Amino acid sequence: MAGALDYLGERLEELRKQGLLLHERVLEGPTGARARFDGRDVINLASNNYLGLSNHPRMNEAAARAAATYGAGTGAVRTISGTMAMHRELERRFAAFKRAEDALMFQSGFTANAGTVAAILDKEDVIVSDQLNHASIIDGARLSRAEIKVFPHKDAGAADELLGQTKAPGRRQLLITDGVFSMDGDIAPLPDLVEVAERHGAIMMVDDAHASGVLGKEGAGTVDHFGLHGRVDVQVGTLSKAIGVLGGFIAGPPHLIQWLQNRGRPYLFSTSAPPSVIAACMAALDIIRDEPDRLERLWANTGTFKDGLQGLGFDTGASETPITPVITGDEEKTQEFARRLFDEGVFTPAIVFPTVAKGRARVRTIVTADHTEADLKEALEAFGRVGGELGLL
Ligand SMILES: *Cc1c(COP(=O)(O)O)cnc(C)c1O
Q1: 393 residues of the chain, pLDDT tens digit each
Q2: DSSP state of 274
Q3: Do the beta carbons of residue 192 and residue 154 sit within 8 Å?
Q4: Strand 346-347 vs strand 234-238: parallel, antiparallel, or unpaired?
Q5: How far does the centroid of ligand 1 lie from the alpha carbon of residue 210, in Å?
Q6: Phi, psi (rounded to 5 degrees) for 95
Q7: Which domains are present in the chain?
Q8: 17, 115, 143, 234: which has the fewest Cβ within 10 Å?
Q9: Which residues touch 49 (CB under 8 Å, ≥6 apart)?
Q10: Ligand 1 binding pocket includes 209 (Cβ within 6 Å)
Q11: Helix (H, G, I), strand (E, B) or coil at 308
């Protein structure tokens, strides 16, 4: 039967022909350094579970206990009746974690970014944004209706010029960057960007989704990594990656937080996080404090694995963090590479256009604190074997 949505079927067919249709693998148990996907036990280099917290017994117990005591859901958005004391406590703890005055939780890092950018700027304003910033920043920028100016990746000089060109009396300017870029694993030139923002009186905002729990003292993020406390107006963090659970947050001055409580649309119009999530996030902060060796192991594993890949002759791009791309360039070849690695027991996703530029296709690896030396050795052997067979080395 012909239907009004038939055009979607045609579009999907086009995606399929171009090799751009997504196929999700199914996780058949808890995530971890080794996990079961699609019926196969593999070394998992495909998660953002940097510190190995997603299935930590203390996290699981905290979640279960909170559900038993406070229920599975909160019943409302934060501003109506969905704020529990534990929501405020987690926010206080995140403010302390980021050494900011206050913090506000959102349902995800995505809504934290999009909701905040849209709420703090108007159509008269301008956003100066790194070319490789996350989709949630791009969506928030569009929702704000402000003018959007994109600067070449990590080019603080170009950001400086754009801020100069777009300056006008009464016009607010936002300079925004990811702290760690999710597809390349490189770090934003935050000291230079902060200087540029200060020179122009622009708001400085950093999205530390991949840096929270990973970079800086106790994983406090890029602001701490570069010693820029007090010079970044808005810090975004996610609870979904290194923290191991789900949610996002904004850290900054009290008037920012109160403004977002009044005008941050995802905060106002979407139900608050359930008790199990809040309790597990709180436990994550305890574990990060109590088990500092996790962060050490994450970075030791990062060094081992990066050195191993480079030693084999792979192009790992500009990565400086636990995110290490293995860049092959060709879309088809990359898909084949990922499939073959999976068959050899190593799960690492193929990342192709439009997520990265055409001709920059790669498989993306992320090591965690929980990977053992044996895991990494085995994974490197598979990379060497499959890379050799496909003529990538
Ligand atoms: C993953 C990610 C987000 C979104 O975080 P979620 O909590 O998963 O919604 C935002 N920004 C960047 C840079 C990310 O990598």
Answers
A1: 689 999 999 999 998 888 788 889 999 999 999 999 999 999 999 999 999 999 999 999 999 999 999 999 999 999 999 999 999 999 999 999 999 999 999 999 999 999 999 999 999 999 999 999 999 999 999 999 999 999 999 999 999 999 999 999 999 999 999 999 999 999 999 999 999 999 999 999 999 999 999 999 999 999 999 999 999 999 999 999 999 999 999 999 999 999 999 999 999 999 999 999 999 999 999 999 999 999 999 999 999 999 999 999 999 999 999 999 999 988 889 999 999 999 999 999 999 888 888 889 999 999 999 999 999 999 999 999 999 999 998
A2: P
A3: no
A4: unpaired
A5: 8
A6: -60, -45
A7: 23-55+292-389 (3.90.1150.10), 59-290 (3.40.640.10)
A8: 17
A9: 31, 32, 241, 242, 244, 368, 370
A10: yes
A11: helix
Task: Report which protein residue has its CA nearest ligand 1's atom 7.
Answer: 109
User: Which is the closest atom of ligand 1 to the Cα of 238?
Assistant: 7
The Cα 393–Cα 384 span in angstroms is 8
| Burial of 381 from C-beta contacts in 10 A (0-12 / 13-18 / 19+) | middle
pTM here is: 0.97
